[in-house]
């Protein structure tokens, strides 16, 4: 089970929310890059994520060549993404303990506005993830 308290960001900051319960998850400035492993599942990699939990002992599975554990929202318990436990093949992006959240399960808030989080995109010619400009 998740923590008994939840961290909330200042509403003047731009940040991501769980689309199911509006739990605060990550600041937009902590969005690192878009990532699409060989499986075709895409998500956003964040430098820091809050109000989520991972039960590594519960269920490990493969996401392409990598071993991952599910990442859940602390408030509503919905599956939001994955934490990379083991990275087997050389991958320019994937690294151990990296957290990837599915952008389709997030919303973006800035002030009083809440919008759908932008679906990550990769360069169509090279299939290389696009790093977010800050």
Can you walk through the features of this model?
The protein has 134 residues and is mainly β. The protein has one domain: Peptide methionine sulfoxide reductase (Metal Binding Protein, Guanine Nucleotide Exchange Factor, Chain A, Beta Complex), CATH 2.170.150.20. The chain has no helices and eleven strands. The strands form two sheets. Strands 3, 4, 5, 6, 7, 8 and 9 form a seven-stranded antiparallel β-sheet that branches. It has a four-stranded antiparallel β-sheet with strand order 2-1-10-11, with no helix packed on it. A hairpin with a 2-residue loop joins β10 (106-110) and β11 (113-116). Pfam families: Yippee-Mis18.
**The CATH H-level homologous superfamily:** Peptide methionine sulfoxide reductase
Largest sheet: 7 strands, antiparallel
CATH-derived topology? Metal Binding Protein, Guanine Nucleotide Exchange Factor, Chain A
- Oligomeric state of the chains in view: single chain
CATH class: Mainly Beta
How helical, in percent, are the residues? under 10%
**Main structural class:** mainly beta
Organism: Solanum verrucosum
Pfam family, one: Yippee-Mis18
InterPro entries: Yippee, Yippee/Mis18/Cereblon, Yippee_fam
Family: Belongs to the yippee family.
């Amino acid at each position: 089970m998740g923590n008994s308290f939840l961290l909330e960001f200042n509403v003047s900051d731009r940040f991501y929310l769980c689309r199911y319960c509006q739990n605060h998850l990550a600041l937009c400035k902590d969005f690192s890059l878009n990532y699409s492993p060989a499986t075709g599942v895409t998500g956003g990699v964040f430098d820091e994520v809050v109000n989520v939990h991972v039960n590594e002992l519960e269920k490990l599975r493969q996401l392409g060549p990598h071993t991952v554990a599910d990442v859940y929202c602390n408030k509503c318990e919905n599956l939001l993404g994955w934490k990379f436990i083991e990275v087997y093949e050389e991958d320019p992006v994937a690294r151990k303990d990296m957290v990837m959240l599915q952008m389709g399960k997030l919303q973006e808030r800035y002030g009083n506005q809440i919008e759908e989080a932008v679906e990550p995109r990769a360069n169509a010619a090279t299939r290389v993830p696009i790093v977010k400009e800050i």
